[in-house]
Design brief:
The chain has about 425 residues and is of the alpha/beta class. It has eleven helices and 24 strands. A seven-stranded mixed sheet has the order 8-7-6-3-2-1-24. It has a seven-stranded mixed sheet with strand order 9-10-11-12-13-22-23, with helices on one face. It is globular.
């Protein structure tokens, strides 16, 4: 009897392993498949490890920590590139802004406009739930519930029906504008671990608290400054304000404006699209720098970039707020950013100068990531043989993997550069 030779799948972690940011995972099978190729932006920009030519590249969603280095794949190599239409348009918006910031700050750019244009001209537009045959695999994208167009990727090997699932960033609990992530079964599950050791607060209670505190600022003739991630968070905040009849006080500035226009152009990727449309029709839009004085003259809410206060109109507004105003931080503040400095009581940096913020602030955990319980639920319902924990700091990924191992799963918590082989 001839013994069948084992077939191994090699997975290399080019970034986003035991860290948050620069997600990049290379799968080496009969073809080379790249899952995301992002950057990490702290005090400086960090890039994933270099990758040679790949056959297939899948982009899970538009945020720069997943998309930011994708154009670098198009130097003389043209991989089959897969994403949803909102992901393509939102990625282009964010990458162009990143390139503009690099030019302004005289930071070396590792690709050029030509590579971005090639990416935008060659990607394949995928819809949710429709398997497409590609290079010996069926590739299917499912709703990740994170932001507009975000996707969980299923890769099925046609020759033996083995399945790899990559979650990217996902959320099981519905948001106003995004529904619950799809549960996808697979033999190998590569799962984000951002909040593997933390639960998020009750969403409805958090919204109630946020709205009440915004109203209090308005009643005191102040400005509620809401720095928000342009893609995802800004639209969710606008929906909250519209539902609570505060949209007439609301101004939208910065890249949040352009991102919102893209999101509304793809209503099939948005839950409660009429709420977002109503918010965008009734809010005030800041078009020019000179218009930024207007909301500061009356009780107002300003939803603007950047979410971590590392640039954008938020820094302009923050120096001009009156004493009755308040800053509402609505997302995770990465170590080294102005948002983290503010939370730690330290001066922030504006145009390379230190600025002591006197305006009070508060943090609201409106995360679009799965919390601890949902991460474990996803693993159990996906029912894989092997779980690989990525996109979390070293403590979170290690603890997540160790706990799942006690439940009988074969688990890994890799570091950047590490390669693992799996019987496939």
């Amino acid at each position: 009897m001839i013994k069948k030779e084992s077939v191994y799948l090699e997975i290399q972690f080019l970034g986003g392993a035991s860290e948050v940011g620069r997600s990049a995972i290379l799968i080496k099978d009969e073809k080379k498949i790249l899952l995301d190729y992002g950057i990490k932006i702290d005090d400086k920009t960090e890039y994933p490890m270099q990758v040679g030519g790949v056959d297939i590249a899948v982009l899970s969603h538009a945020h720069l920590d997943h998309s930011g280095f994708f154009p670098a794949l198009f130097f003389g190599n043209y991989p089959t590139t897969i994403m949803t239409e909102p992901t393509a348009q939102l990625s282009e918006l964010l990458i162009k802004d990143s390139m503009k910031i690099n030019r302004r700050q005289h930071i070396k750019q590792n690709f050029f406009k030509k590579q971005l244009n090639l990416l935008m001209s060659k990607y394949i537009k995928y819809e949710y739930g429709v398997p497409i045959e590609n290079n010996g695999y069926y590739i299917t994208l499912y709703d990740a519930g994170h932001i507009s167009g975000s996707a969980i990727t299923l890769i099925e090997k046609i020759s033996n029906d083995r399945r790899i699932v990559y979650t990217g960033d996902f959320k099981l609990q519905p948001q106003i504008l995004q529904g619950s992530a799809d549960i996808v079964e697979g033999n190998v599950l590569i799962i984000e671990s951002t909040y593997a050791n933390k639960e998020h607060p009750d969403r409805s209670e958090l919204i109630r608290k946020f709205i009440n505190e915004v109203k209090e600022v308005l009643d005191n003739n102040g400005t509620a400054l809401v720095p928000s991630f342009a893609v995802g968070r800004a639209q969710e905040i606008l929906a909250m304000l519209y539902m609570n009849k505060l949209i007439d006080y609301t101004y939208i500035d910065g890249m949040a404006k352009a991102a919102s226009e893209i999101v509304i152009n793809y209503p099939e990727f948005t839950r409660n699209k009429d709420i977002l449309l109503g918010a965008l029709k009734n809010a005030h839009w800041i078009g020019m720098h000179a218009e930024r004085s207007e909301p500061l003259q009356r009780p107002s809410i300003i939803v603007t970039t950047a979410g971590m206060l590392n640039g954008g109109p938020a820094l302009d507004y923050i120096t001009k707020l009156n004493k009755n105003s308040k800053i509402f931080l609505t997302g995770y503040q990465v170590e080294g950013t102005n948002g983290r400095r503010l939370m730690e009581g330290k001066p922030i940096k504006i145009n390379s100068r230190k600025f002591k913020v006197e305006t009070p602030f508060e943090f609201f955990d409106f995360s679009a990531h799965a919390g601890k319980a949902d991460l474990y639920e996803y693993v159990r319902r996906s029912n894989p043989e092997t779980v690989i924990c990525v996109h979390g700091d070293n403590e979170n990924t290690k603890l997540f993997a160790e706990t799942l191992r006690l439940e009988g799963f074969d688990t890994y918590a890799p570091k950047v550069g590490e390669k693992i082989k799996i019987d496939f």
